Amino acid sequence: MPDETTHPAGADRRRAPRFNISMPVMVADAATGRSWPAVVDNISLGGVLLLLDTQLPAGARLVLHLPIAQDMTMRVEASLVRSSGVGEIGVAFVSLTDDELDRLADFLERRSAEQR
Predict the structure, then answer these.
(1) In terms of C-beta distances under 8 Å and separation of at least 24 residues, what long-range contacts does 22-28 make, across chains too?
(2) Where are the domains of the chain?
(3) Level-2 CATH architecture, domain 23-114
(4) Whole-number CA gyration radius for the chain
């Protein structure tokens, strides 16, 4: 029987908090360069849940173009970690530098504050 004190039922086991930020992004297949428009449903420093009309293979390597400022798009490498049959895909960010993590954290905090 699981220990309910360490992981209560329904507990979120993610390392980074999620931000419910909706914004359009471009997603590209890292191998082919083919790209599609998508919408961020929620995002954290570890990854993002995207709404995408295209089905992608499990484990696909992707490149996301996140608009983190009026005049700046951040290119982020990601890996598909889960998908649903209804157009939701979960991706984990891979190989973010400390500088990229800082820029992403600043962006998430600004956007979250704007939505309050």
Answers:
(1) 23/66, 23/67, 23/111, 24/67, 25/50, 25/64, 25/65, 25/66, 25/67, 26/64, 26/65, 27/52, 27/62, 27/63, 27/64, 27/65, 28/62, 28/63, 28/64, 28/65
(2) 23-114
(3) Beta Barrel (2.40)
(4) 15
What would the pLDDT profile of 73-104 be if each residue is shown by its tens digit? 999 999 999 998 678 999 999 989 999 999 99
High-pLDDT (> 70) share of the chain, % = 85
Residues in the chain: 116
- What is the pTM assigned to this prediction? 0.81
